[in-house]
Amino acid sequence: MPQPLAYLNGELVPADQAVLPVFDAGVVQGASVAENLRTFGHQLFRLDEHLDRFAHSLAAVGFDTGLGSSQLAGICHDLVAHNCVALDAEDDLGLVLFATAGPYASYSGQPAGSLKAQPTLCAHTFPLPFELWATLQAEGLHLVTTSVRQLPEASIDPAIKHRSRLHYYLADLEASRIEPGARAVLLDNEGRLTETAAASLLLVRNQQVIAPPTDGVLPSISADVVEELCHKTGLEFTRKQLWPDDLTDADEALVASTPYCLGPVTRFNDSDVGSGEPGPVYDQLMTAWDRLVDIDIRKQVQRGAARRGGPHQLVHETENRS
User: Fold this and answer.
1) Considering 79, 145, 196, 245, which has the largest number of Cβ atoms within 10 A of its Cβ?
2) 272 with 142: CB under 8 angstroms?
3) Among 105-114, 151-160, 287-296, which is the least confidently predicted range?
4) What pLDDT shows up at residue 108?
5) For position 211, what pLDDT does the model report?
6) pLDDT at 320 (0 to 100)
């Protein structure tokens, strides 16, 4: 079987050799932007949309990789084509594309001025870990509010998909202390609902799917897919400010994220959401997503989890935001 490859600074290398120096600014400062994609049937899903968002993030932080979207797309397609060869036909890949600010001069040990301010660019793939999402999709997620708040827009524009995510880690750590297996949903400084560490939040009320406004959360490609599916299935999709009481009173709540698409939220702050079980709108939207990609997504997750030895607890996963 061919060894998986990764792309690092202009070269395709064995995946286990795609490493960053300890003085890279992505390590030192978390100065990094990223996209996380997945395949369906070994074909990348919504690649153009992810590359557009990546380009926005790069421009916002001033990273110039020297490559355009078409070149980045070629890198992604080449990696998937090579790395899918060793993959089971029923499995799929995740793909991470990220850029950092490059060498952090004062830690590099190099003479001043000898290092060019050139970003590090990397892309790598991984088999999707379906075992992490089997219980989520079958039984639902418990969300809790924590003392850790969303970063204010004055600090980091929420439209930038970045890896400065210690606040997400700390929020989920606090949530797991409140109840093992619970995840944090972050409030902003006004106390409004924003998103989780790894997903967008959606509420369902009277056959209407409601998302927070895009000026306070990462513009979500998965939420955009949900909006498309709502139009196809006769559901209304809208955006408005959401508060904890809105989640308490919702008929259903959902999390949307690239790797598993949608998951039901069945508990919030230790109380049931709706019936306390995955609801009919969740099922309706997942069935529509199945038709969109020609795969039974929930069945793929359950079968993949079984092949990997059953479901496992999802802990501190902050990379896969929508």
Assistant:
1) 196
2) no
3) 105-114
4) 72
5) 98
6) 59
Q: What is the pLDDT of residue 209?
A: 98
pLDDT of residue 157: 95
Instruction: Give a three-class secondary structure readout of the chain.
Output: CCCCEEEECCEEEEHHHCCCCCCEHHHHCCCEEEEEEEEECCEECCHHHHHHHHHHHHHHHCCCCCCCHHHHHHHHHHHHHHHCCCCCCCCCEEEEEEEECCECHHHHCCCCCCCCCCCEEEEEEEECCHHHCHHHHHHCEEEECCCCCCCCCCCCCCCCCECCCHHHHHHHHHHHHHCCCCEEEEECCCCCEEEECCCEEEEEECCEEEECCCCCCCCCHHHHHHHHHHHHHCCEEEECCCCHHHHHCCCEEEEEECCCEEEEEEEECCEECCCCCCCHHHHHHHHHHHHHHCCCHHHHHHHHHHHCCCCCCCCCCCCCCC
Mean pLDDT, rounded, for 78-88: 95
Q: Does domain 134-307 have CATH number 3.40.50.300?
A: no
Q: Does domain 5-128 have CATH number 3.30.470.10?
A: yes
The whole-model pTM stands at: 0.94
User: C-alpha angle 28/31/35, rounded to 5°?
Assistant: 130
Average pLDDT rounded to a whole number, residues 107-134: 84
Q: What pLDDT is stored for residue 151 in this prediction?
A: 95
- pLDDT over 60 at 317, yes or no: no
Q: Could you tell me the residue ranges of all domains in the chain?
A: 5-128, 134-307
